[in-house]
From TrEMBL:
<dbReference type="InterPro" id="IPR036249">
    <property type="entry name" value="Thioredoxin-like_sf"/>
</dbReference>
<dbReference type="Pfam" id="PF00085">
    <property type="entry name" value="Thioredoxin"/>
</dbReference>
<dbReference type="InterPro" id="IPR041870">
    <property type="entry name" value="ERp44_PDI_b_1"/>
</dbReference>
<protein>
    <submittedName>
        <fullName>ERP44 protein</fullName>
    </submittedName>
</protein>
<dbReference type="Pfam" id="PF13848">
    <property type="entry name" value="Thioredoxin_6"/>
</dbReference>
<dbReference type="InterPro" id="IPR013766">
    <property type="entry name" value="Thioredoxin_domain"/>
</dbReference>
<dbReference type="GO" id="GO:0005793">
    <property type="term" value="C:endoplasmic reticulum-Golgi intermediate compartment"/>
</dbReference>
<dbReference type="GO" id="GO:0005789">
    <property type="term" value="C:endoplasmic reticulum membrane"/>
</dbReference>
<feature type="region of interest" description="Disordered">
    <location>
        <begin position="344"/>
        <end position="374"/>
    </location>
</feature>
<dbReference type="GO" id="GO:0006457">
    <property type="term" value="P:protein folding"/>
</dbReference>
<feature type="domain" description="Thioredoxin">
    <location>
        <begin position="1"/>
        <end position="122"/>
    </location>
</feature>
<dbReference type="InterPro" id="IPR041862">
    <property type="entry name" value="ERp44_PDI_b_2"/>
</dbReference>
<dbReference type="InterPro" id="IPR052643">
    <property type="entry name" value="ERP44"/>
</dbReference>
<dbReference type="GO" id="GO:0003756">
    <property type="term" value="F:protein disulfide isomerase activity"/>
</dbReference>
<feature type="compositionally biased region" description="Polar residues">
    <location>
        <begin position="359"/>
        <end position="369"/>
    </location>
</feature>
Length: 387
């Protein structure tokens, strides 16, 4: 396939360990094709990717506005490992060097890829012309509102950079000059309006030019501690590489969800970054429940999916027992859950995971490890087809 990479045909940038950080950090938007030469689908994508690059370069000629790049994952396995690439080809979007959680999963055509980049280059912030627009916001969404004296300012440029990264998770709005004056009694201001008509606003109190601070604050507000797993985002969540702590609950059982959210925040905030906190609709995710010998009638049920096996929290009513849920997660990290399923309870302990098979056998396999059709295990995609 060497002819596909003729540099006279396109400006695809080949990335390696020596140039990847410099190129991606200086690109407003970069679309990176992680491929393997032996992969037939990678070979099919190369000319399409190159032609899409040619189309976009006509519209965004500045080399740092949009970068189309590629990584040969066989030659640069360290880069593939760094970004947790496990299938080919994978198209990942980067903004100013930061990889976005959602990979490109649209149609593999020149038109679709070019349209995707145009969408990514569109302004993620809606400018309001009257503060009355703020009072009529959709309060089922997470809204971030910035009030600025002027658009041409470091404060707004930092806000814009954050919005570019998190616009899939929050609605971003801005007001300027005389329109925003009433909300700028102590200078430029950024406010989070959480879901719920009566939920109180939260004000950002840090430096508006410190990207790391305002990004961390905004991400905390836009990305819930406990997220819902669906058929649409299951693969994306799996690719984050963290085990799942999942509450399976009936869709209308909001009380159990609220209790779970409260206890995760109370007991497990220090574990954020080591495990994903999720909730799932029992009716939609019957097959994962079957893996742990449960049905929707047993919900609410809490389980850990380690991507090797699934482990069940003994009793949902123990959720509020101080430290119980945290110990369940710590026992995953220490290997205790896996060990006790194979060998029985430790001599001085009671098994923290509910045994659902004979102790001589393995715990049930992960339901979420492989999100593509398989002859050997049910998958999210197969479940969706069967519903």
């Amino acid at each position: 396939v060497s002819w596909l990479f003729n540099p006279t045909r396109s400006e695809i940038t080949s990335l390696d360990s020596g140039n990847i950080d410099d190129i991606l950090n200086n690109a407003d938007v970069a679309l990176v094709n992680f491929y393997a030469d032996w992969c037939r689908f990678s070979q099919m994508l190369h000319p399409i990717f190159e032609e899409a690059s040619n189309v976009i370069k006509e519209e965004y000629p500045d080399k740092n506005q949009v970068v189309f790049a590629r990584v040969d994952c066989d030659q640069h396995s360290d880069i593939a490992q760094r970004y947790r690439i496990s299938k080919y080809p994978t198209l990942k979007l980067f903004r100013n060097g930061m990889m976005m959680k959602r990979e490109y999963r649209g149609q593999r055509s020149v038109t679709a890829i070019a349209d995707y980049i145009r969408q990514q280059k569109s302004n993620p912030i809606r400018e309001v012309q009257d503060l009355e627009e703020i009072s009529s916001l959709d309060r089922s969404r997470r809204n971030i509102v910035g009030y600025f004296e002027q658009k041409d300012s470091d404060n707004y440029r930092t806000f814009e950079r954050v919005a570019n990264i998190l616009h899939d998770d929050c609605v971003f709005l801005s007001a300027f000059g005389a329109i925003s004056k009433a909300e700028r009694f102590s200078g430029d201001n950024v406010i989070y309006k959480p879901p719920g008509e009566n939920a109180p606003d939260m004000v950002y109190l840090g430096s508006l030019t410190n990207f790391d601070l305002i990004y961390a604050w905004t991400q905390d507000k836009c990305v819930p501690l406990v997220r819902e797993i669906t058929f649409e985002n299951g693969e994306e969540l799996t690719e984050e590489g963290l085990p799942f702590l999942i509450l399976f609950h009936m869709k209308d059982d909001l009380e159990s969800l609220e209790k779970f959210q409260q206890e995760v925040a109370r007991q497990l905030i220090s574990e954020k970054g080591t495990i994903n906190f999720l909730h799932a609709d029992c009716d939609k995710f019957r097959h994962p429940l079957l893996h742990i010998q449960k049905t929707p009638a047993d919900c609410p049920v809490i389980a850990i999916d380690s991507f090797r096996h699934m482990y069940v929290f003994p009793d949902f009513t123990d959720l509020s027992v101080p430290g119980k849920l945290k110990q369940f997660v710590l026992d995953l990290h220490s290997g205790k859950l896996h060990r006790e399923f194979h060998h029985g309870p430790d001599p001085t302990d009671v098994a923290p995971g509910q045994p659902i098979q004979d102790l001589a056998s393995s715990p049930p396999e992960s339901s979420f490890q492989k999100l593509a059709p398989s002859e050997h295990r049910y998958t999210l995609l197969r479940e969706k087809d069967e519903l």
